């Protein structure tokens, strides 16, 4: 059962009241992700909603740097539209068979077929969300080609043929756009098969604009003064600029402060707010303990420049 949702109310963005999107009627579906605060960006939302509404035989591939909000964008759109999601994380040994399902020993010693995430999503009209798809062996993914196009899913192990539900959608996320990772920062990323990639629409999800990161931090740490949030966002953006994988590629840092890292930093600052050096102490735990000592020093210098006298180590 479907119902229409107001885009402005559902996603908290500026849109005419007449703009609606179709979603599912709320039910007890356990596969609908839990709703969490998420700051939606209009252009990304437009692409995701257009895809969910009318995929036209395509999958959707979200690409962008680590921790930019790709996985959570898909999950949080689905949460608000009551759309079931089966999420899997790709790795080098993931096989198509893992997605189809397996025979398992049940009580009484009998073997019973248990549907895997792909089979469930195809049959129930849910989203199959393959995270880190660029780490999967390309040969395994070719098996998904026909399913993206809406052809029936055949389970060789049981002989069952599953006719795709009209609301089944395939969404993938990855740090590369499928052409491998020239920066060498993302381990295990493999160049994907062209015929497979050709079946996807691409959506690039970079780090949010400062005003959006300010907003999402306000959700996580409502008590934090606006000036502190603004400085944290500024530090994050400066780190991103000198990060080797960054926009112009001229950087010198091998770690970066993603939106995920920024959120972690802010939550830690709130936890340790009574410590005299809460900002630096938390930044170490959120990011810089993972960096080389010289890089840690460089990052602290960036933060000190931004925070001025508020920065204590
Ligand atoms: N627009 C946003 N609004 C609110 N929180 C966000 C937003 N974008 C990112 N976040 C925060 O950042 C975290 C990481 O986001 P997410 O897991 O979606 O990143 P990702 O792009 O899938 O990263 P990876 O490439 O490492 O898988 C989220 O759990 C959330 O806390
Ligand atoms: Mg992800």
Give a verbal description of the structure:
The protein is 38% helix and 16% strand. It contains 13 helices and 11 strands. It has a 5-stranded parallel beta sheet with strand order 4-7-10-3-11. Strands 1-2 form a two-stranded antiparallel ribbon. Strands 5-6 form a two-stranded antiparallel ribbon. The termini are far apart. The relative contact order is 0.11. The model has no long low-confidence stretch (mean pLDDT 93). It binds adenosine-5'-triphosphate and magnesium ion (MG). Adenosine-5'-triphosphate binds next to helix 3 and helix 11. The site of magnesium ion has 4 residues, from helix 3.
At a glance:
The protein is of the alpha/beta class. The chain has helices at residues 7-11, 42-53, 70-81, 96-100, 117-124, 138-141, 145-148, 194-197, 210-220, 226-242, 259-271, 278-286, 293-307; strands at 2-6, 20-24, 59-63, 85-89, 101-105, 111-115, 127-131, 153-154, 161-162, 169-174, 200-204.
């Amino acid at each position: 059962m479907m119902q229409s949702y107001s885009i402005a109310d559902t996603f908290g963005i500026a849109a005419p009241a007449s703009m609606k999107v179709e979603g599912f009627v709320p039910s007890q579906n356990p596969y609908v992700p839990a709703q969490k605060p998420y700051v939606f960006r209009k252009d990304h939302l437009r692409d995701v909603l257009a895809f969910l509404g009318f995929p036209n035989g395509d999958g959707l591939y979200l690409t962008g740097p680590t921790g930019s909000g790709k996985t959570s964008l898909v999950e949080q759109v689905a949460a608000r539209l009551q759309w079931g999601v089966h999420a899997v994380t790709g790795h080098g040994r993931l096989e198509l068979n893992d997605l189809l399902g397996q025979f398992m020993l049940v009580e009484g010693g009998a073997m019973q077929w248990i549907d895997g995430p792909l089979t469930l999503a195809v049959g129930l009209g849910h989203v199959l969300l393959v995270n880190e798809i660029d780490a999967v062996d390309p040969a395994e993914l070719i098996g998904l080609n026909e399913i993206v196009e809406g052809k029936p899913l055949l389970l060789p192990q049981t002989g069952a043929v599953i006719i795709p539900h009209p609301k089944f959608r395939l969404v993938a996320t990855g740090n590369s756009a499928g052409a491998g990772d020239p920066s060498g920062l993302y381990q295990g990323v493999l160049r994907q098969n062209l015929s497979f990639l050709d079946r996807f629409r691409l959506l690039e999800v970079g780090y949010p604009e400062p005003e959006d990161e300010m907003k999402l931090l306000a959700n996580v740490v409502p008590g934090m003064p606006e000036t502190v949030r603004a400085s944290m966002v500024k530090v994050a953006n400066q780190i991103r600029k000198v990060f080797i994988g960054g926009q112009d590629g001229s950087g010198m840092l091998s770690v970066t402060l993603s939106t995920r890292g920024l959120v972690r930093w802010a939550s830690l600052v709130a936890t340790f707010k009574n410590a005299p050096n809460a900002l630096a102490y938390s930044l170490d735990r959120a990011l810089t303990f993972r960096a080389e000592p010289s890089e840690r020093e460089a990052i602290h210098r960036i933060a000190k420049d931004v925070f001025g006298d508020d920065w204590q180590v």
